TrEMBL record:
Protein name in UniProt: 1-acyl-sn-glycerol-3-phosphate acyltransferase
Occurrences of domain Phospholipid/glycerol acyltransferase (ranges): 138-253
Keyword Transferase assigned: yes
BP-aspect Gene Ontology terms: phosphatidic acid biosynthetic process
Record carries keyword Cell membrane: no
Length: 324
């Protein structure tokens, strides 16, 4: 019995459902996203092993000055123009910001993941990107909304930046493997003593190896239109290592992605990197205040970026000023 007619009919029915039903489109796009993650992770893992031979943060994103092929990049500098050039010089700050963005060499993993946005028609409008491109260790914190956050993370991932993820992700086949090869630190949230030991070791490595650490302080995905209370682990890490905290805020995805209403279309995500919050001289006793300062600043910025300043009965207020 020939299966082709049945398969063709099933495919046509699926295409019809995708065209007529928002729910069908939603699950089709989610299924495609998961399939992309699995297939791309498998390919990227092989490339990482061939390129760097194993686990290294360089698999996530290349170091400065070298392109994906390992060769130094040629950089265009306005300083090379003669003083008599008839072209008007742009503002210095704009030149610096643009040059930082243009010379960001992608790593293996970030290059693959950043390509997802073209499949889904997503655009990232980033402000303050240069605040991440500093040659010093720091703790980067950001809000966590959905499985799509991975694209947003890779869009602005600075060099020598590792992430902290729950241990369960390590067992997701090729996804877990590529995360491991990219230098991700897996934390067992069920065993607090092990988690504390790992965080203490990471604090020392940050300073010794000049690493940045990206953490989602909410601890879980949240799409309720507000920020959840922050867990203190990221802030204890920053105080222990005496490194600054750099908040990063992504606008609400609700205009193009909503799990409850099964909405998944193209859209724009606004991203704001806030000014670094110093921790020099702070102690464990200062952690609660540090948490409140960062939470208030990020929450205020989240409402501003999402155009919902009064959502959930919350008003905006002063906080850490966003980077311009």
């Amino acid at each position: 019995m020939e299966l082709w007619p049945w398969l063709t009919a099933a495919l046509l029915l699926l295409l019809l459902l995708v065209q007529l039903s928002r729910t069908a489109r939603f699950y089709a796009k989610i299924s495609l996203y998961c399939a992309l993650c699995l297939s791309v992770s498998a390919v990227a893992s092989v490339v990482c092993l061939l390129r760097h031979g194993g686990r290294t943060v360089e698999n996530m994103r290349q170091g400065p000055g070298r392109g994906p092929g390992g060769s130094p990049r040629r950089r265009f500098r306005f300083a090379n123009f003669p003083l008599s050039s008839p072209l008007p010089a742009p503002p210095a700050a704009a030149v610096r910001a643009e040059s930082v963005a243009r010379r960001r060499p992608p790593g293996i993993i970030s290059w693959f993941v950043r390509s997802f946005k073209y499949v889904y028609g997503l655009r990232f409008d980033v402000k303050g990107r240069e605040k991440l491109e500093v040659d010093r260790p720091c703790v980067i914190i950001s809000n966590h909304q959905s499985i799509l956050d991975m694209m947003g993370l890779m869009e602005i991932l600075p060099r020598r930046c590792v992430q902290i993820a729950k241990r369960e992700l390590m067992f997701l086949g090729p996804v877990g493997l590529v995360m491991y090869l990219g230098g991700v630190f897996f934390i067992n949230r069920q065993r607090s003593s092990t988690a504390l030991t790992m965080m203490a070791d990471l604090g020392e490595r940050m300073v010794q190896e000049n690493l940045k650490v990206w953490i989602y302080p909410e601890g879980t995905r949240n799409d309720n239109g507000d920020l959840l209370p922050f867990k203190k682990g990221a802030f204890h890490l920053a105080v222990q290592a005496q490194v600054p905290v750099v908040p990063v805020v992504y606008s609400s995805f609700s205009s193009f992605y909503n799990l409850k209403t099964k909405l998944f279309t193209s859209g724009t995500v606004k991203v704001q990197v806030l000014d670094a919050v110093p921790t020099s001289g702070l102690t464990v006793a200062d952690v609660p205040k540090l948490v409140d300062t960062c939470h208030h600043a990020m929450r205020s910025t989240f409402f501003h970026l999402s155009r919902t300043p009064q959502e959930n009965g919350v008003a905006e207020g002063p906080g850490v000023q966003p980077a311009q």
